[in-house]
């Protein structure tokens, strides 16, 4: 057994998914057709925003969003090291410099109280990551951004449908980047991504950037861009799955509630939810000082767990040039040695989950 498996969901939705494939293949238009347009307007509407640009994956969603917001060479972007590496890879890809603040020891989210001290004259952007399915408090970041003339890009790759004080993730930044990598809360059958914004100019820039730098059907490059289009096939599948997103989230919450119920009396540290947050449980991250032993013992019983993430980005060889050392971000570093993720997906059967719980209780 693994932390994620899409086959039960596919078998339940097979007819609809195959119908989506047939619809696209019969449509006569395979790139930037009706399905991409339809998905874009429906995904924007789900967030109460005016614009969504579909792109090829979440990493490029962040990269293109930074460029569309005017973030580039030498600009500093304040984010966290306790994130998926692509958050930082995308910052690096536009020539900007990632600057890390530590995370909160309870929620593992960006410690927003540390952001003000990290701002320098070169700071251009604040990039909170709504990690594991729960939202960072963007309100204090907005106050800082307004005071210092910065833009906010939300990394929503793990937080489709998550809310904080009733406000949906992706609707408060200047732009928000999403991934539809298959494991995500809204996952495609392959790669996909999107950028949300309410700003007309940012949306226009995104559409050019994903299409070589040209206005579609006006074949002149003004500023060279990329080829980062969302695939028509993935868009149609995402469109069908978007209608079920609230159901997937409810399914994840039910799995989380069963874990909390069954493991509350153990010495595992279970996920903490900030007041006012509606967690969507992209991953169910627990913590224990004997993490490596526990993972090995579970693997011996056929239960294979993941760690999100075992190596903080600032300690990776590829980011050594940023000048961080062991000890630079103590909370992030300590977490990386103690956290692990239990199987979490909406179609996880009660039977499978009970097996995880009983093996885990035995090992603990
Ligand atoms: C998955 C993920 C990404 C990258 O998305 P891809 O579609 O895999 O490129 C970026 N940031 C975070 C926080 C993620 O979880």
UniProtKB/TrEMBL annotation:
Protein name, UniProt field: DegT/DnrJ/EryC1/StrS family aminotransferase
Pfam family, one: DegT_DnrJ_EryC1
Keyword annotations: Aminotransferase, Pyridoxal phosphate, Transferase
Gene Ontology molecular function: any one: transaminase activity
Family to which the UniProt record says this protein belongs: Belongs to the DegT/DnrJ/EryC1 family.
